[in-house]
Amino acid sequence: MTARGGRAPLARRAVVYGVVGLAAIAGVAMWSGAGRHGGPGASGERPDAPAARGPAAALPQAAVPASTGLPPSLAGSSAPRLPLDAGGHLAKARAVRDFFDYCLTAQSDLSAAGLDAFVVREIAAQLDGTVAQAEALDVWHRYRAYLDALAKLRDDGAVDKSDLGALQLALDQRASIAYRTLGDWSQPFFGAEQWRQRYDLARLTIARDPALTDAQKAERLAALEQQMPADERAAQQRVDQQRAAIDQIAQLQKSGATPDAMRAQLTQTLGPEAAARVAQMQQDDASWQSRYADYAAQRAQIESAGLSPQDRDAQIAALRQRVFTKPGEAVRAASLDRGAGSMQ
C-alpha cells in the first residue's frame, strides 16, 4: 500500500486478507503500533508488573469529558457491542478486543489521557451501572499494559521473516507478554491468532527444510493440516478456493480483460452470484481509489502549509469528513493515513 494509493489492487488486496497469519508473525498485525500512544499506561505501571489487579485499579471516571462527540477519525461510526454472558458479566470473547481496537483508532486524535477518557465514556454508554462496566475498565487497563509492553520491544518487535528461529522467539515473546498482562483474557484476545501464526510458522519450517524432498514436504504438510480443528480446516479450504479465484482474477486483469469478459469467465468458475460480487467490488474499489487519491492530494497540501500540528490535524480531519460521507469511510481513511505515515 502506498501513501497515496489508498488500497492495493483488487486481486492483491484479497491475497493480503488470505495470508494475514504470516503478516502477524512478522510483527505487523498484533497492534504493535497501537502501543505508541505516549508512554506507559494510564496507571504508570511498568509493562512487566503483574496485571492481576481489581476493578479499583481501572482508569478514573473523573477523566470523562462532558462532550459526547466522537473523535474526528471515528465520526459517523459506532462502537462494537461489548458482549455479556448469561449472568450479566463481561463475556470472555474476541469481541471485547474488537471494541478496544475500535477505540484505539482514535489515538491519533487524542492524548493518552483523552484516549482513556474516551474509552471510559464508550464503556459507560453500553454498561453504565452494571458489574460488567468495572470489568471492562479492568480489561482496558490490562490491554493498555499489553500494548505498552509491545511498544518497549526493540524495533517495535519487528522480525526478519527469513529467520524462522527469530519468528518463533517473537511468537513466544508476544504470547508471554499477553499472558502476563492480560491473564485469562489472553486466550479470547489472541488465542486463535496465535494458533494460526504457529501453524503458519510450522508450514514455513517444513517448506524451507532443505533436507526434505518435495514428496516428503507434501506428506508432512498434509499431516500438519490434519491436526487442524475441523472448523479451521474448513476455513482453510475456503481460503484455498479463494486464492485460486484470486489468481484467476489477477490473470484476467493482467491480460486486460474487459469487465464483461471477466465477469463471464468468473461466472463459469465461481458461479453468477460470486461473479456479481467481484464485479461490484471492482466498481467500489475503483470509486474508493479515485476519492482517496483526490483526498490524499489535498491532505498533502495541508501538510505542506506550515501549520501548527493542532491546526494541521484539525484541517485534515475536516477534509476527511467532507470527502468521506458514508458510515465508516472516514475511519478507513484515517487508518490508511496512519499506515502511509508509518512507511515514510
UniProtKB/TrEMBL annotation:
Keywords linked to the UniProt accession: Cell inner membrane, Cell membrane, Chaperone, Lipid degradation, Lipid metabolism, Membrane, Transmembrane, Transmembrane helix
Any Pfam family: Lipase_chap
Spans traversing the lipid bilayer: 14-34
GO terms assigned for molecular function: unfolded protein binding
GO cellular component terms, semicolon-separated: plasma membrane
Membrane topology of the entry: Single-pass membrane protein
Signal peptide segment: none
A biological process from GO: lipid catabolic process
Subcellular location: Cell inner membrane
Function of the molecule: May be involved in the folding of the extracellular lipase during its passage through the periplasm.
HAMAP family: Lipase_chap (MF_00790)
Alphabetical list of NCBIfam families matching this protein: PRK01294.1-1 (NF002333)
Family named by the database record: Belongs to the lipase chaperone family.
Name of this chain's protein: Lipase chaperone
Species: Burkholderia cenocepacia
Phylogenetic placement of the source organism: Bacteria, Pseudomonadati, Pseudomonadota, Betaproteobacteria, Burkholderiales
